[in-house]
Design goal:
Blueprint (H helix, E strand, L loop, with lengths): L4 E5 L5 H9 L2 E7 L2 H10 L4 E4 L15 E4 L23 H13 L6 E7 L9 H12 L3 E8 H4 L7 E8 L2 H6 L37 H7 L6 E5 L3 E4 L16 E7 L5 E3 L2 H6 L15 H10 L3 H24 L1
Parallel strand pairs: 1-2, 1-4, 2-3, 4-5
Antiparallel strand pairs: 5-7, 6-7, 8-9, 8-10, 10-11
Helix pairs in contact: 1-10
């Protein structure tokens, strides 16, 4: 049986693509507007055709034959950390670009069998639940059977990061929906601890250290006193995460000092998490290529915006199994 083929909208650096490919699918096409994300995506997904453009310029007829359409559409309009304007924010309206493309793909006999979307947990309750009801209704109007679940990366992805996200799946085929069950994706024990991700003894460039020349040094020194845990600097205070995981990585970490994850390393130095450590805290492989031409702030932003790879992989495994079960049953009839 040929591999199921996926296309990704709002592809970022390819977290969803990694997850589906690890599950056994084939990423053949992707769209991303951010040229810096495109650099990272392209160097790590060389077999995927990446179109770097505004999604508003993408036409459904130009998307190749696929089985699954994915999209981690912009979460800032629905995030607790943002202004929560939802569909009043232009980025929130980008959901309707997804439905436009579904319609155009249907006109070209390429309607996706599966729709897979990811967003912040708050999407489910935003605007008294009206936002999610709208999303679900729009997908159901296109004959998708919709199901959703909120999963935490540290509970479902064996990733030591406290990151709750909503995953929305639309099934065009009723048999696929019948074969899929969230109960087949139970919580798993966290064995991939922060000690396996963070290099506590590493020699690092001075730019990652917080020393006396930094304005916030005194505040950090007073609050960052224990080894083996991750702290988060939030401009005016420091928060310790004593549950053994990293707090939610955000797009603005490293951009002006907000939400920066920090540690007290084994040399008693206060330092930022390294860009690669942040990527690993999103489940990206250790051998993932970080483009040399990108500054650290770009990589931190990319890591904060990314989708946790191993959570996607577990969901994707069950989606692909549901599709395979349907197809095998049809072949035998």
């Amino acid at each position: 049986m040929e591999k199921y083929r996926i296309a990704s909208l709002f592809a970022g650096i390819g977290g969803i693509d990694y997850g589906f490919e690890q599950a056994g699918a084939k990423s053949i096409w992707a769209n991303e507007i951010d040229k810096y994300c495109a650099v990272t995506f392209s160097i790590n997904h060389k077999k995927t055709k990446l179109v770097v453009d505004d999604i508003c310029n993408i036409k459904g007829k130009n998307i190749p034959k696929i089985d699954i359409l994915t999209g981690g559409f912009p979460c800032q309009p629905f995030s607790v950390a943002g202004y929560r304007k939802g569909f009043k924010d232009n980025r929130g309206n980008l959901f309707y670009q997804i439905t436009r493309l579904i319609d155009e793909m249907e006109e070209n006999n390429n309607k996706p069998r599966i729709i897979f979307l990811e967003n912040v947990k708050n999407l489910k309750t935003h605007d008294h639940k009206k936002t999610y009801k709208t999303i679900k209704r729009e997908l159901e109007k296109r004959n998708y059977l919709v199901t959703e679940n909120v999963l935490n990366s540290c509970e479902y992805g064996n990733i030591p990061q406290n990151r709750e996200r909503i995953f929305i799946i639309g099934f065009l085929n009723p048999s696929d929906r019948k074969n899929f069950d969230w109960k087949n994706i139970p919580k798993i024990k966290l064995t991939n601890t922060i000690d396996k991700v963070i290099a506590w003894d590493a020699e690092v460039d001075k730019k990652y250290l917080y020393e006396k020349d930094k304005k916030c040094y005194q505040l950090l020194k007073e609050n960052i006193t224990e080894k083996g845990i991750i702290y988060q600097y939030r401009r005016i205070y420091v928060r310790a995460n004593k549950n053994g995981v990293c707090p939610t990585l955000t797009a603005n970490m490293g951009m002006g000092g907000h939400n920066v994850p920090l540690i007290l390393d084994n040399k008693n130095r206060i330092r930022k998490l390294l860009p690669r450590e942040c990527l690993m805290l999103q489940g990206f492989p250790k051998n993932m290529i970080i483009p040399e031409e990108l500054c650290d702030s770009r990589v931190y932003k990319q890591a904060g915006n990314a989708v946790s790879v191993s959570v996607v992989r577990r969901i994707a495994e069950n989606i692909l199994e549901a599709m395979k079960e349907t197809d095998e049953k049809n072949e035998n009839n």
